[in-house]
DNA sequence: CTGTGTAAAGCAAACGGTTCCATTAGGAGG
DNA sequence: CCTCCTAATGGAACCGTTTGCTTTACACAG
């Protein structure tokens, strides 16, 4: 049988309440008693039952991560791995466990979140995406549950969130290509309902406009954060009469798809097409050629999200003048894929 | 306030036990009562408190996976990503939540596992590695806790485990090179305390001996599951007087390191050195040249592990004649890196 | 009309903790 | 010597469910 607080109490000749107080370091316990009880706990191999503790304290010391919809697909991106790594590392430092959950669609996600939060299985939630008009966010917000968004919301201003300045990041990426001498620059975007797609597209537009460069509609292609999207975008671009000499892709995975396609068609990177993309996942420097990428500090993003959430769980009253939006700095890593000046 | 089973009971004019029984589909509840109660639960937005439920049922409907801390360093992240993806997918299908935990070292891992299991926070554990003489395994085994090993144990025969036939896989990889005409074949291994390293090395040996080929000690190099190890192994091999014409690497990441090194020295793959490695991570086909690799079905490995564990949790008495070791098939994917017959 | 079987629902005791309130025993102050 | 205070501990209720054991209420056979 598992040993409970009562067993320890009996053997130590004290009451259960005393044992409980020893456990929580209550001030009014004599040093002597405390030591005696601790020895006995050790002897008997006592481990507190978290469920019982949670039941009364209404606290679980765990948080949960909601993976975006097509968890099975999007999950194949190293982006999430890094994020999770950051979250798990920081959480365990704060003594919190991390639960991973996902749903096949927005409705399932909502059910899962509701079950976990209302069922008191977790204390808070980290959302790994930011969609437009998200029902999950509405639920969390109106229920007053602690949560943090990796990304930003289009509706609520006062939400706790950790994000990059994606507009600026895209601006930087595009300007890098422009400064290398490119004038015809394409853009491969992500799903339009994701805020990050829109932000990056906006940054691209700003940069192009800023330098007075032409922006054709056909140079902007929508896709997913997947290789295939890159592959398709590539074949579309390369068949254009006056095709771009460079492109900005919304995610490194997309670049890999582009690379694969160009390779098949015997085009050279960066000579025939220069590429810059986002996220700087660990594989970016391993491809051939290595891909120039905006490092957005994924691990840091996750680490901070966890920190901010747990802090909010522990004292929810910290909106006194402090900001709710945390911006993680980005930085352009230039690699071979963009190191070429077009012959024009 | 949150609504409890008692609130529902009061409003429905029945006892709490009745509500509980409605919830669990007890047979001796009249259809009428059942319907009435369900309507009221819906109205009041009732969600069961998992903690209370777990406390009495001694069951949590969640499992946990232990990431080896060295995982972050030793393994290619994509491997774990895939594994986790498989686990989370299958677990959520079975209605289980997944908790992620890790420790900085074996002692910390043990503490975490003990806290989670003895503290009744999870019902079972998936270990994502198999080391020699593992204390965590000893703990789980002697405590009679449900767990499954991805990999295999060197000590216990009757442990639940999901693995590849790594010996055979390495045998196949090596034989592929032999059949291409290679006779001097090197091997880059992983840390010797990991069972997978040993198994693959053994398979390599078997294949070489099987064909009566010479095996020099200097053709076998130990490393980690990292690029750097490949880089180092490469420069060692290429400086050998009678150097190998091909090599088998224990992980794709190692191959990338080899590739990078060879590229720097202007050697050609596969002409100067043919390569085959393991795991077939998504990037394997993106490198130049694409790498021949043994696909070990990582996702499937994770999916099966979760399945087997949950089954064992739900009815622990299934060792009646059935095997405890599940072997996921592997398959050699031949790509450019090994498509060349040595001129000799 | 009484005894018996059965379906439906209620009672109350757990599960393993925490915490408010009460109790006890000295020691200080008057 | 008697209060009164305080430090240290004990007692018991409670957190939200589940479940074994009763109880209730009929229907039906004898």
Automatic annotation (TrEMBL), chains A, B:
Where do the HTH cro/C1-type domain residues begin and end? 4-33
Q: Which GO terms describe its molecular function?
A: DNA binding
UniProt keyword annotations, A-Z: DNA-binding, Transcription, Transcription regulation
Say if the entry is tagged with keyword Transcription: yes
Keyword Transcription tagged: yes
- According to the lineage, what is the superkingdom? Bacteria
What region holds the HTH lacI-type domain?
A: 3-57
Q: By what name is this protein known?
A: DNA-binding LacI/PurR family transcriptional regulator
Species of origin reads Paenibacillus silagei
């Amino acid at each position: 049988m598992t040993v409970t607080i009562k067993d320890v109490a009996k053997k130590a000749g004290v009451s259960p309440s005393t044992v409980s107080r020893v456990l929580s370091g209550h001030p009014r316990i004599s040093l002597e008693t405390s030591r005696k009880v601790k020895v006995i706990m050790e002897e008997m191999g006592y481990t507190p039952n978290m469920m019982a503790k949670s039941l009364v304290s209404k606290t679980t010391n765990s948080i949960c991560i909601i993976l975006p919809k097509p968890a099975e697909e999007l999950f194949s991106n190293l982006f999430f791995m890094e994020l999770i790594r950051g979250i798990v590392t920081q959480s365990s430092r704060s003594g919190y466990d991390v639960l991973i959950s996902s749903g096949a669609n927005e409705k399932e996600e909502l059910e899962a979140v509701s079950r976990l939060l209302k069922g008191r299985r977790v204390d808070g939630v980290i959302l790994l995406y930011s969609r437009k008009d998200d029902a999950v966010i509405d639920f969390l917000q109106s229920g007053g549950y602690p949560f943090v968004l990796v990304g930003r919301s289009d509706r609520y201003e006062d939400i706790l969130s950790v994000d990059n300045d994606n507009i600026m990041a895209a601006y930087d990426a595009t300007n890098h290509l422009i400064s290398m001498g490119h004038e015809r620059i394409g853009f491969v975007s992500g799903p339009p309902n994701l805020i990050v797609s829109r932000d990056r597209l906006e940054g691209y537009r700003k940069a192009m406009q800023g330098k007075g460069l032409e922006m054709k509609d056909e140079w902007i292609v929508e896709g997913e954060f997947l290789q295939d999207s890159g592959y398709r975008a590539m074949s579309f671009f390369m068949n254009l009469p006056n095709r771009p000499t460079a492109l900005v892709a919304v995610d490194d995975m997309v670049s890999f798809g582009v690379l694969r396609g160009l390779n098949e068609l015997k085009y050279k990177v960066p000579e025939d097409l220069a590429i810059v993309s986002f996220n700087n996942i660990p594989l970016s420097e391993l491809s051939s050629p290595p891909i120039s990428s905006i490092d957005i500090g994924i691990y840091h993003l996750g680490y901070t999200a966890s920190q901010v959430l747990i802090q909010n769980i522990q004292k929810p009253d910290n909106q006194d003048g402090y900001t709710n939006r945390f911006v993680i700095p980005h930085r352009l890593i230039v690699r071979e894929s963009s190191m070429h000046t077009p012959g024009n």
